[in-house]
């Protein structure tokens, strides 16, 4: 269970890396105990306590999730790290129906679109290493709202597991200076190829 070994200098600025198989792709979210417990019991997110009307962000990068949630120690609202296996068809739908959360490019880039017209937001943030330091390349975050949240909760999710103990184990190894052991415990994330990645998503250069 180790991330694919690549020199960071060999990784494109924007590249989707994830744990996946022929049917599903894994994304991560961090939630409070009530939301996590309800989701694990039901096999999907339950409203309430999950709020269907809010945008929810899914992240294929384990280490970016660790950065965002502070290994599950940041606050009570992010103390439980969930691994959600969703259908590859659902993931593709999200990519194909999204727009960039922030415009990128130069002065000749297309005008920014009206984000309110889209149910999915795409954001590229700096990837993180085991010490949660920024790397040169980016990791994708996908924000789901409106019909995308409905599809996510009712159709895309295949399995939910609690990986908080794994997060705490890896964090403890890093703190102890046992970085190689920590790296060996990371989920195996490989390059995820999708035609969207080589095309131009809305308002991306």
Q: Output the radius of gyration.
A: 17 Å
Shape: globular
Structural class: alpha+beta
**Uncertain residue ranges:** 105-111, 198-205
Q: How large is the share of residues in beta strands?
A: 25-35%
The profile of the biggest β sheet is: 4 strands, mixed
Per DSSP E runs of 2 or more residues, the count of β-strands stands at 9
Order of helices and strands: EEHEHEHEEEHEHHEH
Helical content stands at 25-40%
What's the total helix number? 7
Domain count:
1
Distance between the termini: 34 Å
Strand order, sheet with most strands: 3-7-6-5
Provide mean pLDDT, rounded: 88
Structural overview:
The strands form 3 sheets. A 4-stranded mixed sheet has the order 3-7-6-5. It has one domain (8-104, 118-198). A hairpin with a 5-residue loop joins strand 6 and strand 7 (134-144). The protein is globular. It is α+β, with helices and mostly antiparallel strands. 29% of the residues lie in helices and 25% in strands. It is built from 7 helices and 9 strands, in the order E-E-H-E-H-E-H-E-E-E-H-E-H-H-E-H. Helix 3 (88-96) runs antiparallel to helix 4 (147-156).
């Amino acid at each position: 269970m180790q991330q694919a070994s690549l020199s960071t200098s060999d990784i494109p600025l924007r590249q989707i890396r994830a744990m996946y198989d022929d049917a599903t792709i894994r994304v991560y979210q961090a939630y409070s105990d009530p939301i996590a417990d309800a989701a694990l019991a039901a096999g999907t997110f339950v409203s309430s306590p999950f709020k269907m009307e809010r945008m929810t962000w899914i992240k294929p990068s384990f280490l970016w999730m660790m950065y965002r949630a502070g290994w599950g120690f940041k606050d009570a609202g992010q103390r439980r790290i969930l691994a959600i296996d969703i259908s590859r068809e659902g993931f593709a739908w999200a990519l194909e129906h999204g727009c960039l959360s922030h415009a990128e490019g130069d002065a000749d880039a297309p005008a920014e679109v009206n984000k309110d017209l889209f149910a999915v937001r795409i954001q590229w943030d700096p990837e993180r290493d085991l010490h949660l330091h920024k790397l040169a390349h980016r990791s994708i975050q996908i924000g789901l709202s409106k019909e995308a949240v409905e599809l996510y909760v009712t159709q895309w999710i295949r399995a939910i597991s609690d990986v908080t103990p794994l997060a705490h184990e890896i964090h403890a190894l890093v703190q102890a200076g046992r970085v190689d052991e920590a790296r060996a415990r990371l989920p195996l994330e490989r390059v995820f190829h999708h035609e969207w990645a080589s095309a131009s998503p809305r308002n991306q250069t």
